[in-house]
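Quiz preparation item.
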């Protein structure tokens, strides 16, 4: 058996890490969608204020006040749109994860296209409001695109013996 054929069947840590990362994001987005649909019509500002108080944070803090202000401005239609968007994006990520798990070439291209299309938005957001989380997300997404683009061998069908 050639080295090429064994590499295709050997478990690949990097690919599994990408799949797990996609699944974690799916779970978080489904949680956001469920929360949005459950909270439609609720007073989100009051709920946010109670959560902030329960966490022991200062409601007058700059970032906390900004978040509370955003919650106060959300209409029920906007909350539904957030839930639907989160659910739609979760479906795309779940499709990517399944396709990568099954080592489908279309999933590799879908992941590269979707992930790289978000990089300019992440750079813009990072320039507007820098944070460690945004830097780490940008680095992770760039690493995913480079990894998949460089490791095409993972998605080649095994050669017949």
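Solution:
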């Amino acid at each position: 058996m050639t080295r090429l054929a064994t590499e295709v069947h050997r478990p690949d840590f990097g690919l599994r890490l990408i799949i797990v990362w996609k699944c974690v994001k799916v779970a978080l987005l489904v949680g956001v969608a469920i929360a949005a649909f459950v909270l439609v019509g609720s007073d989100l500002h009051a709920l946010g204020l109670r959560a902030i108080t329960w966490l022991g944070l200062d409601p007058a803090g700059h970032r906390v006040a900004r978040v509370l202000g955003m919650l106060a401005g959300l209409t029920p239609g906007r909350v539904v749109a957030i839930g639907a968007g989160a659910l739609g994006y979760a479906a795309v990520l779940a499709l990517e994860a399944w396709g990568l798990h099954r080592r489908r070439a279309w999933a590799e291209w879908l992941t590269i296209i979707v992930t790289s299309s978000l990089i300019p938005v992440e750079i813009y957001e990072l320039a507007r409001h820098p944070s460690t989380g945004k830097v780490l997300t940008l680095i992770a997404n760039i690493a995913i695109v480079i990894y998949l683009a460089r490791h095409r061998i993972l998605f080649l069908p095994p050669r017949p013996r």
